[in-house]
Structures are given as structure tokens and as C-alpha cells.
Specification:
The chain has four helices and no strands. By secondary structure, the chain is mainly alpha-helical. It is elongated, with a radius of gyration of 15 Å.
């Protein structure tokens, strides 16, 4: 996927289409001319991680997490990126 395609995909979030997660290493991306796509996906991963942290901070009352926390992040980033970011956090 090219950078232009990634940017076009970002504009279609409201329709439920999210930018794909780039799962290859940076060295692979460089070798295949996809370094910009890697960086764009990585920036989205960072933004998703920050959004998850903010959602927890805003919707956790000390005992439970409000259902609205997941909905806001899910709407903005989609399930695939959230799962990828959370998996990377656990490792």
C-alpha cells in the first residue's frame, strides 16, 4: 500500500474502513520502498496507544471501566489496530 492509499483510507474511517496495520519490520519496509507507510502506520499506533490511555483515564472510576471507553477508541482506530497495539503492549 502506498502512502497516498494510506492517506485516502484514513479519510474513510467514518464508513468503518480503517488504515491497515503495517506489520513488517522497518528494515523490510526500507528494502521494499515502504518506509513512509511503515512510519504512517507507526504514528497511528502511537496515537492509538495514547487514545487508549486517555480513554482509561477518563472512564475509570477506581473500580470499573465505563463501556464508553472502548467505543470511542474503537470508532477512531478500529479493532485491528487496537488489538495490535494492545498485543505489543503486553509483550
Amino acid at each position: 500500500m502506498t502512502v497516498k492509499e494510506l492517506q485516502q483510507t484514513e479519510t474513510t474511517k467514518s464508513s468503518g474502513v480503517y488504515p491497515p496495520v503495517y506489520k513488517e519490520s522497518f528494515s523490510y519496509a526500507q528494502e521494499h520502498g515502504e518506509a513512509d507507510v511503515f512510519r504512517s502506520s507507526n504514528r497511528l499506533n502511537d496515537a492509538c496507544s495514547t487514545a487508549i490511555e486517555e480513554a482509561i483515564r477518563d472512564h475509570f472510576d477506581g473500580m470499573r471501566l465505563d463501556d464508553k471507553a472502548a467505543a470511542s477508541v474503537m470508532e477512531e482506530f478500529g479493532a485491528e489496530r487496537i488489538a495490535y497495539v494492545l498485543a505489543a503492549t503486553v509483550l
